[in-house]
Write a structure and sequence with these properties.
The complex is a heterodimer of chains A (116) and B (115). Chain A has 116 residues and is mostly beta strands. Helix content of chain A is 0%, strand content 56%. In chain A, the strands form 3 sheets. In chain A, strands 2, 5, 6, 10, 11 and 12 form a 6-stranded mixed sheet that branches. In chain A, strands 3-9-8-7 form a 4-stranded antiparallel sheet, with no helix packed on it. The relative contact order of chain A is 0.34. Chain B is an all-beta fold. In chain B, strands 2, 4, 5, 6, 9, 10 and 11 form a 7-stranded mixed sheet that branches. Classes of the chains: A mainly beta (116), B mainly beta (115). The interface between A and B is medium-sized, with 25 and 26 residues.
Chain lengths: 116, 115
């Protein structure tokens, strides 16, 4: 069965510094996708970044980068130059094949607090 | 207007009542999903549908049922609501096909409280 693990319930970072949010996954599938979503206090889910299992380069989107280590089954999110508006919940997710077909599952999330 | 619209946005109901949460989308996506969010548990998949004639159970389908009335509409029903179904419910859509990433596009959420 597929599984996503986020071991950091909460993280603090100083404004303008970089922060890494951890994510490990488990799947027996060779083809899968990894995502990070942001949920601000307003509640909506915002897509941040995607990494395919066959992508050799780490994905980057502006201040977000995904540190993909396939052998370790980790997909950590790196946020550079943190801003106060980055304070939010962050969810790691994986789309892969399981019984019933392709579906996306989520980790428990990490709440990030950015300090001024 | 939102591409993925959920109604109602907030609902308070009593134990034993039947509740329907509705989701409609204008994105033209074939795949639709219902997730439930509880604090500390992330989002858990309830049901998903890859087209009108395809319905699949997710991780936590017990106590829920769904209906895919059209490509653009996917409803979630709680036949007899219970307090531990109090949660934030999200509808999401995605595009199928091998070249697509499977990125989910979410509605704004429906907060359900069962007393």
């Amino acid at each position: 069965a597929q599984k996503i693990t986020q071991t950091q319930p909460g993280m603090f970072v100083q404004e303008k510094e970089a922060v890494t949010l951890d994510c490990t996954y488990d799947t027996s599938d060779q083809s899968y996708g990894l995502f990070w979503y942001k949920q601000p206090s307003s509640g909506e889910m915002i897509f941040l970044i995607y990494q395919g299992s066959y992508d050799e380069q780490n994905a980057t989107e502006g201040r977000y980068s995904l540190n993909f280590q396939k052998a370790r089954k980790s997909a950590n999110l790196v946020i550079s130059a943190s801003q106060l508006g980055d304070s939010a919940m962050y969810f790691c997710a994986m789309r892969g094949r399981d019984t019933g077909g392709f579906k996306t599952i989520f980790g428990a999330g990490t709440r990030l607090f950015v300090k001024a | 207007d939102a591409d993925v619209t959920q109604t109602p946005r907030n609902r308070i109901t009593k134990t034993g009542k039947r509740i329907m949460l509705e989701c409609s989308q204008t994105k033209g996506h074939d795949r639709m999903y219902w997730y439930r969010q509880d604090p500390g548990l992330g989002l858990q998949l309830i049901y998903y549908s890859f087209d009108v004639k395809d319905i699949n159970k997710g991780e936590i389908s017990d106590g829920y049922s769904v209906s895919r009335q059209a490509q653009a509409k996917f409803s979630l029903s709680l036949e007899s609501a219970i307090p531990n179904q109090t949660a934030l419910y999200f509808c999401a859509t995605s595009v199928g096909g091998g070249q697509n990433t499977g990125e989910l596009f979410f509605g704004e959420g429906s907060r359900l409280t069962v007393l």
